[in-house]
Predict the structure.
Amino acid sequence: MLFKVLIALALASVATAVPTGGLPTPIPASQCNTGPVQCCDSLQTAGAPAVAPILAALGIAVQDVNVPVGVTCSPISVIGVPGNSCSAQPVCCERNGFNGVVAIGCTPVDLNL
């Protein structure tokens, strides 16, 4: 019986140590193949208190509250050209068709890679 309890506790500690709902690891800008790299004021999950009301107001339904969403985004047309930098959060997003208000399915981009 003690063995079962120890196994259960060990499994529980492993389950609590695994992070969930975090943002993806940054990728190089050259790996963004869904459109131009975007510069967003912030990158949060769809379920975040600051993001969920915006998505609702725009009538955007996101199936997973952990989907990364860029907020207030504009495209960075050419990486490395003066005037085309991003002082906030550069991202590569799957859905950019919301006039820059939000971009959905975003992955952080490391402009230095």
In short: The two ends are 53 Å apart (CA to CA). The longest strand covers residues 37-45. Residues 44 and 112 are 22 Å apart (CA to CA).
